[in-house]
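G., the chain you wanted modeled:
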Amino acid sequence: MNHWKLAPIALGIAALAAGCSNNEATTTAEEPAATEVSEEEIEQRAMESREAIQQFASTLQGELMSAMETGGPTEAIQVCNEVAPEIAADISADTGWDVGRTSLKLRNPDNAPDEWERAVLESFDAEVAAGTPADEVAPSHEVIQTEDGARFRFMAAIPTGSQCLACHGEDIDSDIKHALERLYPEDEATGYQAGQVRGAFTITQEM
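Predicted structure as C-alpha cells:
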C-alpha cells in the first residue's frame, strides 16, 4: 500500500498526516453516483486532491511559523483567521475545486460540514476510538450523485498534535483565549486532547 504524509504545522493551529487508502462514507442526502467512473480517474482525482491539500498545509505552515516567530500564538491566530481562507481561495481558483477545512467542533462557522463531511468526520473519530492513531487515519473519497450532477469528494483528517493544544486544548492561556474570543466569538474548537482528530481538509470536484 502506498502512503502519503504531510509535515506537521508547527503550532497549536494544525497538524496533518494520513495514509492513502479509501475510507468510504455515504449519507441519505448524497448517494454514490450511478454513472460509471473508472478506477484510473478516481485515483487520478485522489492524487490531485492530496497534492492540493499538501500545498494548502505547506503554505499555511510557512505563514504560521513566521507569525509564531514574530508575535507568538496570538499573532498566529490572527494570520490563520486572515490567511487560511485566502490560501483556500487561491487553490480553489487555480484548480476550479471547492477547497477548505471543516470540523465537528467549529472555530469558524463558515466551515460547517455538510452531511457527507459530517459522516466522514464521525467515521474518522470512530477509527481513532477503535485504536487507529489519528495520524494514520486514511483519507476518505467518494463519487457522489446529487441533483446537480456527479461530484468527487475527498477528505483528509487533521490530527491534534501536542503543538495544537495551545489554541485548541483544555488549558488555554488568557491572552490566547481573548484573541480567540475577539476573532471567533462562536468558537467551539477547544477542549481537544493530543491524538484526537480535530477536523479535516476537504475538497469537492465537480465532474
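Residues 99 and 203 are 5 Å apart (CA to CA).

Shout if anything looks off.
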